[in-house]
Specification:
This protein has helices at 12-20, 41-69, 75-84, 104-107, 109-117, 132-165, 172-197, 217-244, 250-259, 263-278, 287-310, 314-317, 327-352, 421-430; strands at residues 85-91, 97-103, 199-200, 213-214, 367-372, 375-381. By secondary structure, it is mainly alpha-helical. The N and C termini lie far apart (129 Å). It has a domain at 40-314: Rhopdopsin 7-helix transmembrane proteins. It contains 14 helices and 6 strands. The longest helix is centred in the middle third of the chain and has 34 residues, at 132-165. One of its GO terms (cellular component) is membrane.
Length: 432
């Protein structure tokens, strides 16, 4: 808005005329079309539908693997559910936006609703000033939901990697993951805060004609998306170092590396957001065009992040089912998990000089642990057994409860000595 403009100094008639006017001038008067602004809703609806399908599919695969196959629910699963179950918003008939807690899959209705109400990639000069509140509120809520969801899904990915790559001791990889979790939390919490409290009064963020002041949103947004891209790149290369240090065949390393390289899609989408914001002019640019581009790239990044979170669990979800060409992938993944755990335990034993701490003896209070594909679960407590002997074969009923038992079977054969006088004579002659 122009400096010195006072909306509340206008008469009611002048205020109405101002709100019905366009906030931007069209390049040509022939392009002005406030009744039915041209848009690209078909493109956005197609992208959102594909993203919705992929996110739902891979999240269901992860749920099958974790809850149906492994019968487990860890912190990472709860965080992943928070990323998939979040708040959404709907645009009502009175052009107000009311938040409502519904599933992530229905959150996409926000994008559909905005397209039907205003139009994706429409031009700002085809709208009125009174439409800016609906537009800005929708952008504000969408940015909030994106920040919360990408924050949750990234932390869920890092927690999964900690459980997979750090089975025993807290090594460098562990502390890098913890640092990224803290960094992501600070980034997205600050983004949410500046989104809602960047203007004084807060209503000026939605109604720019109000008196007040706002922070430089272009600088804040560019820094946030650039730092977001930096963390995406770190998460892309973080597991590769562990994978390529495995003592395994090169083709096996390539197969596992590809599974954990889906983050390339996340980095590409994050790069698209950085490019759009870095080349945009908030003051003179078309805010609907800029916002539409940013939201589409953000939606793609979030969908790709769900792929990174859930796809590695696909071999576990489809274990025991007809492979249809997936048996090799399952074999690569299961073997890599076992190799990673073995290498981690060996490294921890060599660094501490006390390998027996990894597998405690029976007089300790530790629990015997069984290792599966990508998981460790408690089985039974160890205890001492008294030695016993029997001349009868063991049966199932005679065995103790679950645990580790060592048995030794000794066979004794008896025979009569063959001794006669001639043999005694020759034995005696040898010593005379």
């Amino acid at each position: 808005m122009a400096e010195g403009f006072d909306f509340y100094a206008l008469t009611p008639e002048e205020q109405g005329q101002f709100l019905d006017s366009s906030p931007a001038s069209p390049p040509s008067p022939d392009l002005l079309n406030m009744a039915n602004p041209p848009n690209r809703n078909l493109l956005v609806f197609s992208v959102v539908s594909v993203g919705l399908f992929l996110s739902t599919l891979v999240f269901a695969i992860r749920a099958i693997a974790r809850h149906c196959r492994m019968k487990q629910c860890k912190i990472a699963d709860v965080v992943a559910a928070l990323a998939f179950v979040r708040c959404s918003s709907c645009i009502s008939d009175d052009e107000k936006i009311s938040p409502s807690p519904i599933f992530y899959v229905t959150h996409t209705w926000t994008l559909y609703s905005f397209g039907l109400k205003l139009g994706w990639f429409a031009h700002l000069y085809n709208f009125r000033f009174r439409d800016l509140r609906t537009l800005n509120e929708c952008f504000t809520l969408n940015r909030t939901f994106y920040s919360f969801s990408i924050w949750s899904v990234k932390n869920a990915i890092l927690l999964d990697w900690i459980r997979l790559f750090v089975p025993v001791n807290k090594n460098t990889f562990y502390w890098l993951c913890v640092t990224l979790i803290v960094t992501n939390s600070g980034l997205y919490v600050s983004t949410i805060f500046t989104t809602h409290f960047g203007c004084t009064p807060r209503e000026k963020a939605w109604e720019p004609w109000r008196p007040g002041s706002c922070i430089n949103t272009h600088t804040a947004d560019t820094f946030a998306v650039s730092f977001n891209l930096f963390t995406d790149l770190l998460m892309l290369f973080l597991p590769q170092r562990v994978i390529w240090k495995l003592h395994a065949r090169r083709d096996w390393k390539i197969g596992i590396s590809l599974i954990f390289s889906l983050g390339v899609l996340t980095c590409l989408c994050a790069s698209g957001r950085v490019y759009v914001l870095a080349t945009s002019d908030y003051d003179k640019g078309d805010s609907i065009q800029i916002g539409s581009n940013v939201i589409i790239w953000a939606f793609g990044e979030l969908t790709a992040a769900f792929l990174v979170l859930c796809i590695p669990w696909a071999p576990k979800a489809f274990a025991g089912m007809p492979s249809f060409g997936l048996s090799t992938i399952r074999q690569y993944y299961s073997s890599a998990v076992a190799r990673i755990r073995t290498k981690s335990k060996s490294s921890a034993s060599a660094s501490t000089g006390a390998g027996n701490k990894l597998w405690p003896t029976s007089n300790s209070s530790k629990t015997y642990r069984r290792m599966g594909d990508g998981d460790v679960e408690s089985v039974v407590r160890l205890h001492d057994m008294a030695c016993s002997g029997s001349d009868k074969p063991h049966t199932t009923a005679s065995l103790p409860g679950r645990g580790i038992m060592a048995t030794t079977e000794i066979s004794i054969a008896a025979s009569e000595p063959r001794i006669n006088g001639e043999q005694d004579y020759y034995r005696q002659q040898l010593w005379t």
